[in-house]
Amino acid sequence: MIPNTIYTRPIWLDSDQQTLNVIDQRQLPHIISILNLKTADDVIMAIREMVVRGAPLIGVTAAYGVYLSVVNSKNRDNPDNYLKQECERIKSSRPTAVNLFWAVDRMIEKVCGVKTFSDRLDAARQEAESITEAEVENCRLIGVHGLSLLQHLAAEKPKKPLQVLTHCNAGWLACVEHGTATAPIYAAFEAGMDIHVWVDETRPLNQGARLTAWELGRRGVSHTVITDNAGGHLMQHGLVDVVIVGSDRATRTGDIANKIGTYLKALAAWDNRIPFYVALPSSTFDWQMTNGLTDIPIEVRDPDEVRYIQGLATDQLSRILIPPETSPAANFAFDVTPARLITGLITERGVCRSGEADILRLFPEHAE
Fold first, then answer.
1. pLDDT at residue 2 above 50?
2. Distance CA 199, CA 244 (A)
3. What are the beta bridge partners of residue 249?
4. What CA–CA distance (Å, rounded) separates 306 from 28?
5. Each residue's pLDDT tens digit, 284-306
6. Domain of residue 149, CATH code
7. What is the dihedral of CA 357, 359, 363, 368, to 10 degrees?
8. What proportions of the chain, in percent to the nearest 5, are helix, strand and coil?
């Protein structure tokens, strides 16, 4: 832990060019701990154990994982085979966020065919940096396009704060900078809008209560942490003006996979005629998929994440068992919200309806 340090990104390449530094998000908000990743094994652990999490950040981490694999291929008997094997291992670290596979494939395409080690190393580093900066810019633009939506909604209720509900953490911790769902919120805050955010706790790992609340608090954005099941009640009583969430994978037809519980928020928003937006960069689309319910793989994680909860007790992090010790638990990490429940998608190219025709209007290069 480095006291009195203000971090603006959760990931950066060390000055030695051989170490990837990441904020250990498992320790937040109570401890800021930096982990040093030097190998593909380190990167796989960081992705799998959710040291890093969030689709764009997973993609960036994977890209740098390929770069570190190039660094470590120098003295291998067959560097090409070694690199291919490491890339496949990195891609197997988590199944749902498509950014992981997109980033690794993009890195492979860039470094394959580069003959000398030094040239391959330069190409890998430059491509990882390019992926990183592109994701940052995409999230900034999501904020720009989302701001106009929030300004329009705020104009309908003058002299009252705009009430936004979000789920999980789709902030800069998940996306390098700006965030996806939080990008319009930060843009609105910086534009001087009166805005308040309802923050779902997001069980079982409490990414909302731990991470989104930490982010918003550091920025000075008014917010309130709520239980996951309180959102419907707030919507029924007119306390939510708009729901904005992120996404880990979206189909070309507009179905989205996001943190478990997102579907229930979409149902509540639909029933109460509240706009429900998904903010995502183009790297989160799986252009080969058309049916989210049948096609998107849903990660099932360790049931102990449900059975235990972590928090600060007597100045140290503690892990506490909640249910009876013998009770089994199930831990589905994501659910799928069908396009029909989504008001619109906020992307780096603008806002569109959640349907294939309008998505392809923004991204015509993916039309078949």
1. no
2. 11
3. 257
4. 18
5. 999 999 999 999 999 999 999 99
6. 3.40.50.10470
7. -40
8. 45, 20, 40
The reply to whether 184 and 332 lie within a common domain is yes
Domain that holds residue 326: 143-366
Strands (E), the chain: 11-13, 20-23, 34-37, 162-166, 195-200, 222-226, 242-245, 249-251, 256-259, 276-279, 285-286, 308-313, 316-321, 334-337, 344-347, 350-352
DSSP E strands in 119-275: the ranges are: 162-166, 195-200, 222-226, 242-245, 249-251, 256-259
In whole angstroms, what is the distance from residue 34 CA to residue 24 CA? 6
* Encoded tokens for 281: 């960069």
> Which residues are identified as catalytic?
248
Residues 6+ apart with CB under 8 A from 133: none
Q: By C-alpha distance, which of 54, 65, 85, 318 is closest to 183? A: 54
Token output for 145:
């396009």
Helix 182-190, helix 117-155: angle, nearest 10: 60
31 occurs within a structural domain: yes
Q: How many CB atoms are located within 10 Å of the residue 5 CB?
A: 8
Conformation bin of residue 314: beta by default, left when phi > 0, alpha when psi is -120 to 50: left
* pLDDT single digits (tens) 296-348: 999 999 999 999 999 998 888 999 999 999 999 999 999 999 999 999 999 99
> Which residue type occupies 201?
E
Q: What pLDDT does residue 315 have? A: 82
Phi, psi of 167 (to 5 degrees): -130, 140
What CATH number does residue 99 fall under? Answer: 1.20.120.420
